[in-house]
Design a protein that fits this description.
This is IS21-like element helper ATPase IstB. This protein is α/β, with parallel strands linked by helices. The chain is built from twelve helices and five strands. The protein folds into two domains: 62 residues, no CATH class; 169 residues, 3-Layer(aba) Sandwich (Rossmann fold). Helix 9 links the parallel strand 3 and strand 4. The chain is elongated, with a radius of gyration of 24 Å. The termini are far apart.
């Protein structure tokens, strides 16, 4: 067996696949630069580290279950929703997450709440945080089934260990009493060590009506708003403003 084949086989055996794939290029670069053994070995290790980091970020992004559109680099800076590019950049620095603060993105449908929340979650994942994106429907399903199925129980345990939880479209519909109580118990369990991004089109004063319990709504908001920035998004729906027609594409 040739030397390169032996190296590739050993790399696969020890699961250092980046070294195997980049070996010819690193050898060529080292010969061109007349690199020493240490520089050559360092170059191989850097390639392996880069691939492992890339794979780890991909794994965390998959686990976070983010919406497909989550790249804030593509955010429409001309969108008239009351959020300036400077404010977006400040949010993307994640200082609020480092310090354990929550964000509440408040505004009508189509003003960019979900996209902004997903983008900030993607930034957090890329920087090493454990983040999970859940719609209100997703979370209520988990809360209902966590004591009944292994899948829901495992998912519940995962989100309990999250650094950041996104609750999308919270209070969009009225919440039944048992689910409201489970939601409060969940938030009460994690709010001191976990940050939230909440998107909603309901003012906090309307939550009591959606929960049909003013005391429970007050207790829930007390925990979510204790360390929280409320960001009001306004304007017309981006989707409706940029509505597309099938027939226009046929012209």
């Amino acid at each position: 067996m040739e030397t390169n084949e032996q190296i590739n086989a050993l790399c696969r055996q020890f699961k250092i696949t980046a070294m195997a794939s980049c070996l010819p290029q690193v050898i060529a670069d080292s010969e061109k630069l007349s690199s020493g053994y240490r520089d050559f070995f360092l170059a191989l290790l850097k390639q392996e580290a880069e691939l492992r980091l890339k794979n780890e970020i991909a794994r965390r992004r998959k686990a976070a279950r983010l919406p497909l559109k989550n790249d804030l680099g593509a955010y429409d800076k001309k969108a008239e929703n009351g959020l300036t590019p400077t404010r977006i950049n400040q949010l993307r620095e994640l200082n609020w997450l480092d310090q354990g603060f929550n964000l509440m993105l408040l505004g009508p449908s189509g003003t960019g709440k979900t996209f902004l929340a997903a983008g900030l979650a993607a930034d957090a994942v890329d920087k090493g945080y454990k983040a999970y994106f859940k719609t209100m429907e997703d979370l209520t399903g988990i809360l209902k089934l966590k004591d009944l199925t292994r899948t829901a129980a495992a998912e519940y345990k995962r989100i309990l260990r999250a650094d950041l939880i996104i609750l999308d479209d919270i209070m969009l519909f009225p919440v039944e009493k048992s689910v409201a109580v489970s939601l409060f118990n969940f938030v009460n369990q994690v709010y001191e060590q976990t940050s939230f991004i909440i998107t909603t089109n309901k003012m906090p004063t309307e939550w009591a009506k959606m929960l049909d319990d003013e005391v429970l709504a007050t207790a829930l908001l007390d925990r979510l708003l204790f360390r929280c920035d409320i960001i009001n998004l306004s304007g017309k729906s981006y989707r409706m403003k940029n509505r597309q027609s099938f027939f226009e594409h046929q012209k």
